[in-house]
Amino acid sequence: MTGNESRAQAIYEITNREPIEAKAPQKLEDIWASNVFSLSKMQATLPKEVFKSLKETIKTGKKLDPSVADTVAGAMRDWAIAKGAMYYAHVFYPLTGGTAEKHDGFISPQSDGGVISEFSGKLLIQGEPDGSSFPNGGIRDTFEARGYTGWDVTSPAYILENEMGATLCIPTVFVSWTGEALDKKTPLLRSIAVVDKAANRVLKLLGNADVASVNSSCGAEQEYFLVDANFANARPDLLLAGRTLFGKAPAKGQQFDDHYFGAIPPRVQAYMHDIETRLYKLGIPAKTSHNEVAPGQFEIAPVYESANVASDHQQQIMTTLRDAAADHGFLCLLHEKPFAGINGSGKHVNWSIGNSTQGNLLDPGDTPEENLQFLAFCGAVIRGVHRFGPLMRAVIATASNDHRLGANEAPPAIMSVYLGSQLEDIFNQIKEGKLTGSSHKGVMNLGVDVLPPLSKDAGDRNRTSPFAFTGNRFEFRAVGSSQSVSGPLIALNTMMADSLNWIADQLETKIGGGSSAEDTGNAVQAILKDIMD
Prior knowledge:
alpha+beta, 38% helix, globular, single chain, 15 helices, nine-stranded antiparallel sheet
């Protein structure tokens, strides 16, 4: 069949396509996290002391008590079997950037020829997939084949459904026989631990007596393209490379800017609703969906979660986008630049750090010039980007993403911070040695009485900056759409920990064993001045 014939056939199939039968909408409270072995389900099924121990590990990072594993495994198995699961899988995230699974049955043969369902604490805590065929960064020879998966209790187990049944999925780390990390999760958990320790040092030096564990948070906006499967199947380049390698520009591209935030086509809206239903069952807080700039391009964005859980959920989002696309007659493209001449796709990683006692540590409040805590932590970010910009560039540099970076729709490949006019003015005042005040939020008068007054932020956003402050967080806009968010999060957490430890060392030198609030404030301003210089 020639190219023209295959295209004509694709158009015929699309024109005569039978619409997917609409499903009755389900109540959010009925489906939310229904396939997740959440804290509430643990509390309902576990003995009080076991649940208390497990919850403390999840909430505070306390060392896991192995003695609770058998009880947890039994409750998890019973819950999964009741949901129709016949298998369990240790899910891990190798250096390929994808998601890997090793599936096992709950089956245990007996001497009388029968079988029973079995899932012990030992099987829950540790698995042994082959580790020789995964990338390892050159840390060992390929014949060193043994690899271990280890249960990550801080990320909840969940049920993955398909037409043939269900599987209990257990998020795990993946390490070698000698203990090297072979995955994205292990170094992410390490980075969370070091930023917690460093942030605790600074918060206590700033006079906080009660300091809870500090964690980073992430909300990743996922952009993607949808192509009708009939067209995609006529393009081997799309199927094999995820992007076009030949062809010419369409008669209409994005010249009129009429696609962005336009009305979502009904067929795509049905796909989005299906996606959201699947994600809600997995406890993934998908919040926003809309048309993106390029024709056939869309976005889904979840609400913020702790970095480790958000990273796991981001992997599930990518898998769900692809799987559901096939069910709706689409091919979902996550390549950063699938088509020449129109916008590519990114994954904007919104990142912050905070805890339950001090709150969001990157929230400036109404008077940021008086918020010593915020200024110290924001200054730490600025120092980190200045010192480790090449590291930030490295964690988002891929063959596909470099097709996008620096193009007219994407941030440049050179790393820099955009603070907005209010914070830029504050830090310039600190640099000059006298902090007097700042601009504040205002109210816009639109000249129409029936419209409500709209509050105006003290600073604008910069949509072209690779790393911009956006109100109470930083948005890393240079991350690629097909990437795991773990790498960027590891870099941000680690550079933040380095800066916070440097600030803590400086504070200890300047204020000694005890000081007044005024002395601490002067010391912080002096440290920030050093950073700005």
